[in-house]
């Protein structure tokens, strides 16, 4: 029998039970390791409880509202009476609760020890939770992210983040969204569909500034058409609020007024006061610095998910969690570069991208070593039936593989699966062109654009 005074020891001790942490745990037990999973809140983390899943539920309700408004042009006479936000929230919360229950059951059935409470790193092999020490031969830091603000911008009252936006029990009349990135455009899209007057303020020159310029142009045109207002290229100065609303001032003196200000300027890493620095882990602006194999350089400590610099996506967290478990097992898993991780923004119209933008590809391979091809969804039967416009843009190395695919249009997020296989398997357009894409689907647009790049366009 082990001495009662010795700390409970695991092969792998994971700090954080969100996407990255629980994926590490699940893959580790498959590989025969004993696993302790420390979580102070709810298993599933941001993605499940106040990120991906609840926001997508809201976006589905928003899509139905838009369908009701537009139904007459499809010969169906439906009227939109109202949005019952209590019922919308009940539907959203029901989805989350179901997924949460399923996850809890899965974790329990695999024999993973869940340690409830806030964990802190002590030295290189110990995590202390509520005064109890637990030891790990390997430690994986997976403490996730929080909704960031700007210096001097206090959250409170009528100034909210996505966390508060997801629990609101009323629909505001008007909202200013600070930040035109993924979170900002998704909430702007939901609120517009719910009948809210929306203005996005983005300091950089365009909405979704990380996307390919062709995607940016299409999104901005679509948002204008939907009546979503936006101010780009001028930075935020400050906000005042009273019982009636908020007044936002930009650095050039412009002002905007609304009921609420949603601060959507990105997510910051949760790493403060957790003992990381004391253990020797390198922290830069709050992020944990690792090598490309996610090792921190200290002992057997790894880090995964939103605390590692790069794109903050749940599926990157899953992949990194699986990667680290396999790395510890000596399986030498393959590194997937951030640029080749598929990304979807679920506003209306949806954006789905993987690989290099045209600009990024030219910087990497040289201006004359890149070929691009665009296919307009106007030529796609299913897109016309759905009433959506948009494009598929493919970037290839000259006479070489496809290195980027960028899509925009209703429901185009569903096409990212094939797109990421094309890019990650380094397919040439000629390889893709010989495969058959079912008709009439939006997926055909991917086939068409590769036919065109292979020099044999069909409908374009």
UniProtKB/TrEMBL annotation:
Its main location: cytoplasm. Residues 341-448 form the Pyridine nucleotide-disulphide oxidoreductase dimerisation domain. One of its GO terms (molecular function) is dihydrolipoyl dehydrogenase (NADH) activity. Pfam families: Pyr_redox_2 (PF07992), Pyr_redox_dim (PF02852). It is found in: Cytoplasm. Residues 10-321 form the FAD/NAD(P)-binding domain. Keywords: Cytoplasm, Disulfide bond, FAD, Flavoprotein, NAD, Oxidoreductase, Redox-active center. It catalyses: N(6)-[(R)-dihydrolipoyl]-L-lysyl-[protein] + NAD(+) = N(6)-[(R)-lipoyl]-L-lysyl-[protein] + NADH + H(+). Transmembrane segments: none annotated. Its EC number is 1.8.1.4. It is an enzyme of class 1 (oxidoreductase). InterPro entries: Class-I_Pyr_Nuc-Dis_Oxidored, FAD/NAD-bd_sf, FAD/NAD-binding_dom, FAD/NAD-linked_Rdtase_dimer_sf, Lipoamide_DH, Pyr_nuc-diS_OxRdtase, Pyr_nucl-diS_OxRdtase_dimer, Pyr_OxRdtase_I_AS. It comes from the Bacteria. Its cofactor is FAD. The keyword Cell cycle does not apply. PROSITE patterns: PYRIDINE_REDOX_1 (PS00076). Binds 1 FAD per subunit. The keyword Translocase does not apply. NCBIfam families: lipoamide_DH. Belongs to the class-I pyridine nucleotide-disulfide oxidoreductase family. The active site is a redox-active disulfide bond. This is Dihydrolipoyl dehydrogenase. It comes from Arthrobacter methylotrophus.
């Amino acid at each position: 029998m082990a001495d009662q005074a010795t700390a409970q020891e695991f092969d792998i001790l994971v700090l954080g039970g969100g996407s990255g942490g629980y994926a590490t745990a699940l893959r580790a037990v498959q590989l025969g390791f004993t696993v302790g999973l420390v979580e102070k809140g709810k298993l599933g983390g941001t993605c499940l409880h106040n990120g991906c899943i609840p926001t997508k539920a809201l976006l589905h309700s928003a899509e139905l509202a838009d369908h009701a408004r537009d139904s007459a042009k499809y010969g169906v006479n439906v009227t939109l009476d109202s949005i019952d936000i209590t019922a919308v929230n009940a539907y959203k919360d029901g989805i989350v609760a179901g997924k949460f229950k399923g996850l809890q059951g899965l974790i329990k059935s695999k024999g993973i020890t869940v340690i409830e409470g806030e964990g802190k790193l002590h030295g290189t092999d110990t995590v202390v939770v509520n005064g109890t020490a637990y030891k790990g031969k390997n430690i994986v830091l997976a403490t996730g992210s929080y909704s960031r603000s700007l210096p001097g911008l206090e959250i409170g009252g009528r100034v909210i983040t996505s966390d508060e936006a997801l629990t609101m029990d009323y629909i505001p009349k008007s909202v200013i969204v600070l930040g035109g990135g993924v979170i900002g455009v998704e909430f702007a899209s939901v609120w517009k569909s719910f009948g809210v007057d929306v203005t996005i303020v983005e300091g950089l020159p365009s909405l979704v500034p990380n996307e390919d310029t062709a995607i940016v142009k299409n999104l901005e045109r679509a948002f204008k058409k939907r009546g979503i207002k936006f101010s780009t290229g001028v930075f935020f100065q400050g906000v005042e609020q009273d019982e009636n609303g908020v007044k936002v001032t930009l650095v050039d003196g412009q002002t905007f007024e609304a009921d609420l200000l949603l601060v959507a300027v990105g997510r910051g890493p949760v790493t403060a006061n957790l003992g990381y620095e004391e253990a020797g882990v390198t922290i830069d602006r709050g992020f944990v610095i690792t090598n490309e194999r996610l090792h921190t350089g200290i002992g057997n400590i790894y880090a995964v998910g939103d605390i590692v610099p790069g794109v903050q996506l749940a599926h990157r967290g899953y992949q990194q969690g699986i990667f680290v478990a396999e790395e510890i097992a000596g399986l030498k898993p393959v590194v997937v570069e951030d640029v080749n991780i598929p990304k979807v923004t679920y506003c209306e119209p949806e954006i789905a991208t993987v690989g290099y933008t045209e600009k990024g590809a030219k910087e990497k391979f040289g201006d004359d070593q890149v070929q691009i091809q665009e296919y307009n969804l106007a030529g796609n039967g299913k897109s016309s039936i759905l009433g959506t416009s948009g494009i598929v843009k493919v970037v290839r190395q000259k006479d070489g593989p496809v290195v980027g695919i960028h899509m925009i249009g209703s429901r185009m997020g569903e096409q990212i699966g094939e797109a990421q296989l094309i890019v990650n398997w380094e397919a040439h357009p000629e390889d893709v062109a010989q495969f058959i894409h079912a008709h009439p689907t939006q997926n055909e647009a991917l086939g068409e654009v590769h036919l065109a790049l292979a020099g044999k366009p069909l409908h374009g």
